[in-house]
Amino acid sequence: MLEIFSTSLSELPRYFSDANKRIFYLYLLSAVALALPVYFAATKQRTTLGFFKFLFPKSVWLAKSAKQDYALWVVNKLIKALMFGPIVLTMAPIAIALSDALEWLFGRTEPLALAKWQVITIFTFLLFIIDDLTRFLLHYALHKIPFLWEFHKVHHSAKVLTPFTIYRSHPVESYLYACRMAIVQGTAVGIGYYLFADAISMFDVLGANVFVFLFNVFGANLRHSHIWLSWGDKLEGVFISPAQHQIHHSDNPKHFDTNLGSALAIWDRMTGTLIKASEVGKISIGVGQYDCSHDSLFAIYSKPFLESAKSLKLSAKKGINKIVPNKSKVTNDKKPSI
């Protein structure tokens, strides 16, 4: 166990050098570059020190909520190493099963006669679309299904936003996202193998899907920040801007369950959950009336289990009442005399 802890902790600094991690150093630098025009627009007295204070206000980065995020980044890494390995889904069996299913349904076919760059482009785009759609669907479920919301509420209990808020999640939610990723990769590889055989590969930048790389370069870290960056109405109908995701974290009930998409806004447009930055004034961060006071790491890890159990019990009770609407009356009536 000590070896697992040691290995897991030694991997944390690599998050800054891995293009598949949100806090990869190039993504952080691009966020700083995108914050610069926001700073210029916000103040007339522009200095290097002023920009630094604009980026790193103590009220945000040293807030209790932010400190919890830093701790969760470390603790969740250890929990994942200890628990997820043996029980998480893996990509290979999903890919094989899907490829075999497609062959059974449609028969064995020759690989499509396309140029290699065309195959790579199609596969890269397919992987991105499936990934973004399933992120939206799982995120939608986390908001709309009461017992799942109790776990996702941990993320929304943040009172301030920093790039490390991406790691503010309950292990149950992290496990669901890990399984989702296996399904995404297995589905893309299964379809790709059926259509193109073993010619499939991906356009990448430093090992990350090119679309994911671009998403992260264009301000992904500002989504969890105090810096308001909008893409404008037209672009925000297609892509989720950092400001739109901050609206998603608003404690205003009008904004609950909105802007659930990751990169693409089209899923929110289809479900009527899209709000553009121009439609919203000043916001504050939190879960509003749903706040369950995640004031400690113990509460963050334990309360979702307690609250989700209550939610399931309530749902079961409602279901029974629908099936037997007069149950309470029947049980309260006296037995008939003989």
UniProtKB/TrEMBL annotation:
Which residue windows are transmembrane per the record? 23-42, 81-99, 119-138, 175-196, 202-222
Q: Where located?
A: Membrane
Q: Which residues form the Fatty acid hydroxylase domain?
A: 125-273
Q: Where is this protein primarily located?
A: membrane
Give the keywords, sorted.
Membrane, Transmembrane, Transmembrane helix
Q: Which domain of life is it from?
A: Bacteria
A single Pfam family it belongs to is: FA_hydroxylase
Keyword Nucleus assigned: no
Keyword Transmembrane among record annotations = yes
Q: What is this protein called?
A: Sterol desaturase family protein
Origin species, per record, is Pseudoalteromonas spongiae
